[in-house]
Amino acid sequence: MYQFRFFVLSCGMALLSLFALHNLSGHVAASVPSAVPAAFSTPRSTYPIVDTATITRALTFLRTSQRADGGFVGFTPGQSDDFTTIKVALALNAARLPIGYLTTSGGKTTLSYLATRTYSYTHDLSGAVFPGRLGLVALAVVAGDADAAAFGVYPAGHAQAGQPINLLSALASSYHPATGAYSTTAQLGFSNGGAGSISQSYALLGLAAAQQPVSAAAVTYLRTLQEADGGWGYGFGGDVDTTALAIQALIASGIAPTDQDVQDGLTFLHRQQLAGGAWGFNGTPSADSTAGVIQAAAAAGFTPVNASWAASSGTPQSALSALQSADGSFSGNVLGTAHAIAGLTEMPLPLLGRAQRAERALAAIRDNPGRQRIVGFVRIAQRWRFARCYPGLQRCWYQSRHRQCAREQHIGPLLPKH
Question: How far is the C-alpha of 291 from the C-alpha of 359, rounded, in Å?
Fold first, then answer.
């Protein structure tokens, strides 16, 4: 009986993989590799998934930078940083590697570290939550194939001490229906839980990653934060990094890349591009900013990014690669390196885990007329909780029941040349 079930499941998965690599019009994307890479296997020292020397060197730098607790140093020497470690978890997913790819000799991973820090990072001393941080942690948890509804535990002395933390319900508790904002009075150091472009964007992205519904009011609120120049920032003009993040959040929430607010944001980013193809500050290229814009462009359907975003003296990818140091790092630190990996792979947020990718592949097949003959196999896959990476659906954007793969076609007008 087991052999029969395995045979049926294998046949069903073969059909699912075949149809998942087609777009709704039935055409196969020319860029889809002929063989599915052996992703999500045991940790390894080689890098066969996106086999470029640039990414390999970046991963090697990350491997040598991991601390014994599984985390990574941020701006405080000798101390693991929560935000930086989150970005490393996202970078691994962007490179189609399992979270265990970076594991210490003591068996610690980025998620091992984050699980011990979840409460202190997402709550202030009074117990109030930071909405943006909750969304950020949810992004990393989903990317690492863990459960955003049960990650980390409440500390001793808390009314729910020892119980798992539901990041999603905690985030929902900070939502204000009247305005659509996710905000609280949380305050810790220079951080606060107030409403803003970055916090709102991360909240929406965390919900999208966990397959949770996003209210129209929450999306509208993020729209209202758009600056007069088309970007998003802090109230005095657009900022490249914030704009790239907001664009990804809007598209992840179901807004089409052709939407005027998204197009205005893309136009803002295009105006900020340097002649060499990168983005930065005061004319100085930044790996962090360049990677973020590449992710936003990819989310909007411009893949490969170089095809539409080439500048007068270079392309985004060539400019980003040129920023790598001899030790494999970008910006000379872990954070810049993690950001760069996501940009080099052109994988926008949210980065889904294996289960989420499988669910979306199955949903796309279910919702697509003419694919009814494989419904039986879909049910088998659901019963057996099959979770696998479908490369052809890696860069899909979703709006209602209509799905198109940005990987297979450019969505929206090509941006003008400089």
Answer: 28
**Domain-located, residue 416:** no
Q: Tokens standing for 32? A: 């889809």
User: Which residues are CB-contacts of 186 (< 8 A; sequence separation ≥ 6)?
Assistant: 123, 124, 126, 128, 129, 130, 192, 193
413 within a domain of the structure (yes/no): no
What is the Cα 396 distance to its own chain's centre? 12
Which residue do the tokens 């996501």 mark? Answer: 342
* N- to C-terminal Cα separation, the chain: 64
| Residue 306: pLDDT band with limits 50, 70, 90 | confident
Three-class DSSP category at 158: coil
Residue 412 lies in a domain: no
What's the domain count of the chain?
Answer: 1
CATH number at residue 94: 1.50.10.20
Q: What is the pLDDT of residue 354?
A: 76
User: Across the strands, what pairs with 314?
Assistant: 311
- Residue 56, domain extent: 2-182+191-405
The pLDDT, as a whole number, for residue 304 is 85
| pLDDT tens figures, 114-139 | 999 999 999 999 999 999 999 999 99
Of the two residues 222 and 303, the one the predictor is more confident about is 222
Which 8-state DSSP code applies to residue 27? P
How distant is the alpha carbon of residue 293 from its chain centre? 13
173-221 pLDDT, tens digit per residue, is: 999 999 999 999 999 999 999 999 999 999 999 999 999 999 999 999 9
Surface-to-core class of residue 246, CB atoms within 10 Å of its CB (0-12 exposed, 13-18 middle, 19+ buried): buried
> Residue 135 domain-assigned?
yes
User: What's 365's DSSP letter?
Assistant: H
